[in-house]
Design a protein that fits this description.
The longest helix is centred in the N-terminal third of the chain and has 74 residues. It contains 4 helices and no strands. The chain has one domain. The chain has 188 residues and is an all-alpha fold. Helix 1 crosses helix 2, helix 1 packs across helix 4 and helix 2 packs antiparallel against helix 3. 85% of the residues lie in helices and 0% in strands. It is elongated. It comes from Acetatifactor muris.
């Protein structure tokens, strides 16, 4: 009886061990899946953040360029804008947005506007000006195109200041929320 009992226990423990291994393997597979999901989610959020930054820049600079172009048209007595030019402008702003976000360190959202940011602003303004000249947005007239370059530089300066002010306001709000949370925590 003792031999049968020991054999029975050994088989039970063997079954328990196999079940334990199966449960552990399943848990490891789930964790690996969660880790894969976490990495995928992280990549997705990074890509989404990049897209939002590009969209923000494209909309902001498209409006700025369209405003200058519209003023140029009005000064010539023309009260319409070319849809082809608008299409070229939006493609240019998306291209420049990707360039700024992916290659130029998002310089117009930097903490400081120093030599690097000034040089990158000059580069981007020059690229916009070259595109405007190439596609004849301002009829290749030097005064209007030169004015556009200066306008682009001013737009980059204004974007930098607006982003800096937004960060300041966001920081103030977050600090106020943190203080309120800490006060609420101390009361309990």
């Amino acid at each position: 009886m003792k031999e049968g009992y020991e054999e029975h226990i050994r088989r039970d423990w063997k079954a328990v061990g196999k079940e334990y291994e199966r449960v552990c393997q399943k848990k490891n597979e789930e964790e690996s899946g969660e880790m894969r999901c976490s990495r995928k989610k992280e990549k997705w959020l990074h890509w989404l953040g990049t897209e939002v930054a590009v969209e923000y820049k494209a909309c902001l600079y498209f409006f700025a360029i369209l405003f200058y172009y519209s003023l140029y048209q009005v000064t010539r007595g023309i009260y319409t804008v070319s849809l082809v030019h608008m299409m070229e402008m939006i493609f240019a702003t998306y291209g420049m947005g990707y360039l700024q976000v992916l290659a130029l360190d998002n310089f117009d959202e930097a903490e400081h506007f120093r030599r690097k940011e000034l040089a990158l602003s000059l580069l981007c303004a020059a690229l916009y000006t070259a595109v405007s000249y190439l596609f004849e947005w301002f009829d290749r007239k030097v005064p209007a195109t030169g004015g556009f370059f200066l306008y682009c530089m001013a737009a980059y300066g204004c974007a930098y200041l607006a982003n800096k002010w937004k960060r300041y306001v966001d920081t103030m709000r977050l600090n106020a929320m943190l203080r309120a949370y800490q006060k609420g925590e101390k009361k309990e």
